[in-house]
Design goal:
This protein has 89 residues and is mainly α. It contains 3 helices and 2 strands.
């Protein structure tokens, strides 16, 4: 499991991106690059990183499910993800 501080930092970035999204879009449309530079760096959506919703693991993230591959496999084998089953042919 990821450190709590890293998970908290990522959530803080998500809140900041949501807070400044409208203002960033407006400044970009106007072409006001000087004002855009004055906004906080963490308000840029490029700085976001996908993390597992259950463990906070940054690698092996599966977008469709929002969790990492390890938790996906555990949940799929337990039958907790509808429509997913182990391949067999």
């Amino acid at each position: 499991m990821a450190r709590k501080s890293l998970i908290a930092r990522e959530r803080k970035r998500e809140r900041m991106v949501a807070k400044y999204a409208e203002k960033r879009a407006q400044l970009k449309a106007e072409g006001n690059w000087d004002e855009l530079d004055k906004l906080p760096r963490n308000s840029n959506p490029i700085r976001l990183h996908n993390r597992c919703g259950l463990t906070g693991r940054p690698k092996g993230y599966m977008r469709k499910f929002g969790i990492c591959r390890v938790k996906f496999r555990e949940m799929a084998l337990d039958g907790k993800i509808p429509g997913v089953r182990k391949a067999s042919w």
